[in-house]
Amino acid sequence: MANLYDMRRYGTVAFLLIAVGLAVLFLCISDNIVKSLAEQERQRMEIWADATKAIANPESSPDNIDFLLSIIRSNRNIPVLLTDREGNILDQRNFDLPEPPDTLRPLYISPTNEAFLNKRLKSLRHTSNVIVIDIPGGESQYLYYEDSRLLRMLGHYPYIQVVVMLVFVALVYFAVISTKKAEQNKVWVGLTKETAHQLGTPISSLMAWMELLQSLGVDADTVAEMNKDVTRLSTIASRFGKVGSRPTLEPADLNAVVADAASYMSTRISSRIRLTVDCCSGPLMVNLSDSLFQWVMENLIKNAVDAMDAEGSITVTTGHTDRTAWIEVADTGKGLPRNRFKTIFNPGYTTKKRGWGLGLALARRIIEQYHHGRIYVAASEPGRGTTFRIDLPIIPSVSAS
Q1: What is the model's pTM?
Q2: Collapsed DSSP state (helix, strand, coil) of residue 166
Q3: What is the DSSP string of 208-276?
Q4: Half-sphere exposure of 80 (CA within 13 A, CB side)
Q5: For 11-36, what is each residue's pLDDT tens digit?
Q6: Which of 207, 332, 220 is nearest to 276 (CA)?
């Protein structure tokens, strides 16, 4: 099951890398198209400049003038400014002027339009979109041009396309992940409820047998020990039954709950494993479901035991901040690499040869969904042990000082 989550993680990384790669590919292709169009527009402007130069040449024949003027008039989409050496605007085309041009005086530029064109000219001087026109007689004119509206749109379009694509990919990814998590939750909740249901019948039967054994005069101590195990089974079934429904939270002293869970587990682990409980002074009041929270503690201690080769130490510590009560369960076991810190809480994930990989997944559900807290790996290092931490909202009025 661990390999399955590794494959899923690698698949997710590969999916994201492919999406980024496609986005980069689209940008490169679009950038090449834009550069090609920009080069074509510059060539058109060079032809336009040559036509302007030819018109200014007194040796040009009248037949050529009409052709050259047609070249100039053919430019209907590239904004152009023609200036002399001093920067005076001689002609302009294809600008969206603030005021309509005077059709009766085509060479007249109103003060408002002149200010607008001078501002555009100032910005164009900082670009490479300029062509020098050498006029016969030692004069020079300068042709400034902007990219056409089509070219500007094509320049922005690839980025818009990539953003839309990435947003779409992100939405699809999170939709799939959310659906998968919802399905997993249904599976695990159904499993726990079915387990509780299946345990109910044999537990009831065992309780009846306990009464029969007692009436038959079986040793009272033996019956008492058996009764403890039956009661324990009943508690476990009750816990499984509560997983799929919202439990009732009641104020409780976290120190007492933690101590009870540790006390129960201390008699059920190897004598070569030292279990130490270090609770903070005073009551540590939080809202919790006692039976479910003890289940979480037992799961954490069991995981700590499994992480050690039947020898080592487990330390359970409690404390608090102004708003949070915390519990840490630290062991001296095998430890975890950092890339496993979140994976171990996934349903079905287990590093053991035998196991469902359900304990930590249910622990996270109990802590985060039912108790509005947080459970996570606070620290771990391969070969040196692991520390799990639980944070719970504290009841300030009765918290420990």
Answers
A1: 0.53
A2: helix
A3: HHHHHHHHTT--HHHHHHHHHHHHHHHHHHHHHHHTTS-PPPEEEEHHHHHHHHHHHHHTTS-TTEEEE
A4: 24
A5: 777 877 887 888 788 888 888 888 88
A6: 332
